[in-house]
Amino acid sequence: MENYTMEGRTYRYYGQEAPLYPFGYGLSYTTFRYRDLVLSPPVLPICANLSVSVVLENTGLRDSEEVVQLYLRWEQSSVPVPRWQLVAFRRVAVLAGQEAKLSFQVLAEQRAVWAQDWRLEPGTFTLFAGGQQPGQKTRAPSEVLSARFSVTGTARPLRGC
Question: What domains can be seen in the chain, in order of their start residue?
Fold first, then answer.
């Protein structure tokens, strides 16, 4: 095999065509609301990790679990990258009418791109948090919040951090 590109070979690289059953697809017996997505710091050095927090509220009448998913999108990259990349997820049980504040770390290595070696690049990124992929259409409603952050510095190999 000489062509190692993933374009057209996995749903992450299909362009605008959505998969029939994407990660996180399913139904729920209750409803959830996401709010207060906070990225810290909003501008970070090239080798730094990103802290993320989000509040998940069970707005339904039943106790239930939700799989909170974080996706990363590169706004510009020197090489082809997925539309978005799953960088964290957590199953959380929330009682009816209650809320939970969740914290995550997005590591610098999760922003790395493959360009003959793993590299970190500066630029603007969008982070999505919700119970499904960004833009996913399901029968059960689920919100997806988004926030942008910037990475400063010069591109460098990941092993240089």
Answer: 25-160 (2.60.40.10)
pLDDT digits (tens, 9 = 90+) for 127-139: 999 988 787 765 5
Two tokens at 140?
């059960």
d(C-alpha 47, C-alpha 81), whole Å: 19
* Tokens 């919700």 found at: 130
Encode pLDDT of 85-119 as tens digits: 999 999 999 999 999 999 999 999 999 999 889 99
